[in-house]
Write a structure and sequence with these properties.
With 189 residues, the chain is α+β, with helices and mostly antiparallel strands. The strands form 2 sheets. Strands 1, 2, 3, 4, 5, 6, 9 and 10 form an 8-stranded mixed β-sheet that branches. A two-stranded antiparallel sheet has the order 7-8. A hairpin with a 2-residue loop joins strand 7 and strand 8. Helix 4 packs antiparallel against helix 5.
């Protein structure tokens, strides 16, 4: 199912073109949907927008010490849209819905070595698939204390300014905002 979705996914730029090829290769690796694979594993993220498509919902992640999208590890689940939806709800309290079941974006991301529950996790790669979700800006939001310090809605450009990870802001979130603006234009037609 994921393999077919990735094969038919049309990359937005050179980064996605190259990363899509890596994600397809990763599907052939053992335990690619599990953190037991210490080299790489699949993750799912959500770019959550409101009905106006002018805001995105972000969480202040403790691990990254930055405002960021929601998402998490597949942990054996091959339905990455399900993972993205679950993580969005767990991290924000919002009951977001997919604007499409299609993949919105793909990225190969680095996970730096860190401690997790007292165990060292070596540096590795996240084979990330992003989905575009819609949340209700009026719905109560909450943080998930063990993962994030805060949750907030930001205007698209403000989200880039709030992110303290330059590579994520410049390479990932700006791309997601550009794609969201194109999506909004398509909706207006």
């Amino acid at each position: 199912m994921l393999k077919e979705a990735l094969q038919k996914y049309r990359p937005f730029n050179k980064q996605e073109e190259r990363d899509k090829a890596v994600l397809l290769q990763a599907l052939d690796m053992e335990n690619c949907f599990s953190r037991e694979n210490l080299i790489l594993h699949f993750t799912a993220s959500a770019w959550i927008t409101d009905q106006s498509r002018e805001h995105v919902l972000m969480a202040y992640h403790r691990l990254y010490d930055s405002w960021a999208w929601t998402g998490g590890h597949a942990d054996g689940e091959e339905d990455l849209l399900s993972v993205a939806l679950r993580e969005a709800n767990e991290e924000t309290g919002v009951h977001a819905k997919p604007l499409s079941k299609e993949i919105f974006s793909v990225e190969v991301l680095t996970g730096n070595g860190h401690e997790k529950r007292g165990v060292y996790v070596p540096s590795h790669l996240h084979m990330n698939v992003t989905y575009l979700l819609e949340g209700d800006i009026g719905e109560a939001i909450r943080s998930k204390a063990d993962e994030n310090k805060a949750v907030a809605w930001f205007l698209l450009d403000e989200a880039l300014e709030k992110c303290s990870e330059p590579w994520m802001a410049e390479r990932v979130y700006s791309k997601l905002n550009e794609k969201l603006r194109l999506f909004r234009q398509g909706e207006k037609r």
